[in-house]
Automatic annotation (TrEMBL):
Residue segments, region Disordered: 34-77
Domain of life from the UniProt record: Bacteria
Pfam families in the cross-refs: GSDH (PF07995)
Protein name (record): Glucose/arabinose dehydrogenase, beta-propeller fold
Keywords: Signal
Signal peptide range: 1-26
Every Glucose/Sorbosone dehydrogenase domain range: 109-282
Organism: Amycolatopsis tolypomycina
SUPFAM superfamilies (alphabetical): Calcium-dependent phosphotriesterase
Length: 402
């Protein structure tokens, strides 16, 4: 009997000290309460988190981008412990372009508005230089939009919306190659130079241009300012444009984002007006006069991502309020309810915020990427500015529910 008791005691002590695989590990939580705080990890010992694509489900140990099971420790220098962050310590990431992939190792191109640098951001790796564009960042311009070629897998071309010393324009480039002009002469002004670029997922590029500080230009059919353009990769009007024109819609002033559904059946553009922020659903050949939704409080609508077909919502980043606005979309493609707010630091379990969000781009139908612009008037943390992953879960989910 004494021998068996001594053996059992030794086994218990061994488990307590060595914790071999066959020993039990006791949980220190009950009824949602933690009896002792978890230690803050060091940069050499980051927290254990699930990577992109993990199923959040009902298991609190599971996590997915932007939705962690427990509060994430604050960044330490350029080290960010949030699994949704794939690049850190950049400057005003106004433009992003998600690279194709299944999300297991998400990658994107990130463009700095002021410097014109384009970097390759990949989860688990340091960002690396991809290209350098010559830009002028005055009048809210600079590098404000990035998009992959509709045939990127074959041609490896990237398109950018930039401000130069003389105009706003679209250029194209490949890694290691000098940029080439595609569409030039878009009016430039003392303000109103911000524009953006995306794809319509039907083989063409969409270019949203600012009004160059002249609100009347948005309605002027002879000006490329304040318009939504649809172009091919050579800068010409593709088939399907009204009257062979580059212009498919008019009436923009300070656009922040343009995005399309996976099948190209829905196209959206965000805009900032003097009295409100607005979202438009684009109808080719029709002026942008009746918004699909408006925000009188002007949160600074920016990039967008259409998660609707992935049981999500239409998600819109805000570069002033620092949140996602998530709008439910009905079967007919119309906005079907009020927006819910996420990534504002107040909602979610636990609440998460990345601060001011600017450009957004899809990686695949269930994963998008966004850039932050906290160094442009926000409250940057040590790892800003960042490139972060966005999923339907972080956007508030389907049916307008957070």
């Amino acid at each position: 009997m004494r021998t068996r008791y001594r053996s059992a005691l030794l086994a218990i002590l061994a488990c307590g000290v060595l914790l071999p695989a066959g020993c039990a590990r006791f949980d220190d939580t009950a009824a949602g309460q933690t009896f002792s705080p978890a230690p803050v990890p060091s940069p050499e010992s980051p927290p254990e988190v699930q990577g992109p694509g993990a199923d959040s489900g009902s298991d609190p140990k599971q996590a997915r981008p932007g939705q962690t099971a427990a509060p994430v420790p604050p960044p330490q220098g350029c080290k960010d412990f949030d699994p949704s962050v794939i690049a850190t310590c950049l400057d005003t990431v106004a433009a992003v372009a998600g690279l194709p992939g299944d999300g297991s190792t998400p990658s994107a191109l990130a463009g700095e508005r002021k410097s014109g640098r384009v970097l390759l951001a990949t989860g688990g790796k340091d960002a690396t230089d991809f290209a350098k564009l010559d830009v002028k960042a005055d009048g809210d311009g600079g590098l404000t939009g990035l998009a992959l070629s509709p045939s990127y897998v074959e041609d490896q071309l990237v398109f950018a919306y930039i401000t130069t010393a003389t105009d706003n324009r679209v250029v194209r480039f490949a890694q290691g190659q000098a940029p080439k002009p595609v569409l030039t002469g878009i009016p430039k002004g003392a303000t109103g130079n911000r524009g953006t670029i995306g794809t319509d997922n039907r083989g063409a590029l969409l270019v949203a241009t600012g009004d160059a500080g002249n609100p009347n230009a948005a309605a002027d059919p002879n000006s490329l300012a304040g318009k939504l353009l649809r172009i091919d990769t050579s800068g010409k009007a593709p088939a399907g444009n009204p009257n062979g024109s580059l212009v498919v819609a008019a009436g923009l002033h300070a656009p922040g984002g343009v995005c399309a559904s996976a099948d190209g059946g829905r196209v959206w553009v965000t805009d900032r007006l003097p009295d409100k922020d607005a979202l438009y659903r684009v109808q080719v050949g029709q002026p942008l006069t009746t918004p699909a939704w408006t925000w009188p409080d002007k949160p600074g609508v920016a990039g967008c991502a259409d998660f609707v077909d992935a049981n999500g919502a239409l998600s819109i980043g805000t570069s002033l309020a620092g949140s996602l606005q998530n709008l439910p979309v009905g079967p007919d493609g119309a906005i079907s309810g009020k927006p819910t707010v996420s990534l504002d630091g107040k909602t979610g379990k636990p609440p998460v915020t990345y601060g001011r969000l600017a450009g957004m781009s899809m990686i695949n139908p269930q994963l998008a990427v966004a850039g932050t612009v906290n160094k442009d008037g926000g409250a940057p943390v040590s790892s800003d500015d960042r490139v972060v992953l966005i999923t339907p879960a972080t956007s508030g989910g389907g049916n307008g529910k957070d």
